[in-house]
User: What shape does this take?
Amino acid sequence: MTHYSALTLIRKALGGNQGWTRAWRNAESKPGYDVVIVGGGGHGLATAYYLAKEHGVTSVAVIEKGYVGGGNTGRNTTIIRSNYMIDGNTRFYEKSLQLWEGMSLDLNFNVMLSQRGQLNLCHSPAQMDAAARRGNIMRLNDIDAELLTREEVQRKVPILDFSEHARFPIFGALFQQRAGTARHDAVAWAYARAADRLGVDIIQGCEVKGFLRDGGRIVGVETTRGLVRAQKVGLAVAGHTSHLARMAGLRLPVESHVLQAFVTEPVKPVLDSVVSFGAAHFYVSQDDKGGLVMGSDLENYNSYGQRGDLPVIEETMADVKALIPLASRLRIVRQWSGIVDMTMDGSPIICKSPIDGLYIDGGWNYGGFKATPAAGWCFAHTLANDEPHELNSRFTLDRFRRGYQMDEKGMGPTPWAH
Assistant: This one.
């Protein structure tokens, strides 16, 4: 990593930012690779990095139709956590959080990890019982969890509505201290630079329009910049997984929906934890600039459009006002949307597909960003070894055929649950 003195930084800034070196190469595609990964977001770049670092596979191209991190990686609310309880999800997301904790050192890039903790609020005795069960399962898996009383929650987050007239009285919360947030674009940049330095080609502005076949096997991709052959092709394209799979002749049990996020005007520090509202699907944190970053439920119609709809805006604003009364005086200064792949059970897919030569990382529902490092780590293992790692061994396509669903209740509804 190049280090600059303060004087050098000032000189370069006053000089119109001339002379900066590229963080990664603007690569041109070669005729063929061992692995082509479609999708230049966090998952695709992490997969390329771990392929090179952990498995010595450096003949890798990451093909991105736009620019690095321009998809869902840059369109989320930046929350990371591992408070899952279904066998299969629990250890996977804990592995992801462990990788988050070492990411800045491993990639030599500050991803601005902030382990400020997350509270999942409870609004009834039944929710407290459910939280206690989840917390016990987490602790049995060596994952930190603490069940807080109403008074403990009030001391930690006094701006919540604890009044006698609260629409949703707070009974307590399940707290994970190691949860928090990270800078989403820094994650994409860090993985891109690290993968590039290990020999991976990152090809931007290159859209996949079809697949090359040799009999029944996928042997490459057809792009807007020509044909690129590969021994293996991995899809890591977030909300467009089913669209790309359809090009290859594969129908996935996935629906694509729009998920909105919002940020308010900046205020002084009032919220030093991530808070999830147990009475509705709503979550909020405060960013480094002072804005309250909020998200809620997805749009109930299928779409590939990165825009939102007014009913969800109304619902989100009602949620934040019910939970944090002072928020009613704040203005929303920005709104954005991402496209999420929703599986029938709310859990992801990381596996070798039924089509020889094609591999899938998709169906992330609400969990894509927090899963970035573990998804890349496991997908790289699957691509390199033609078999899953133990951590993603249950994230297969055939679980839907067999009726073995991994329904993680309470961690975000699926579209079929409405």
Remarks:
- Residues 412-418 have pLDDT under 50 and may be disordered.
- The chain has two domains: 25-109+183-255+345-417, 118-179+257-340.
- The domain at 118-179+257-340 is CATH 3.30.9.10 (D-Amino Acid Oxidase; Chain A, domain 2).
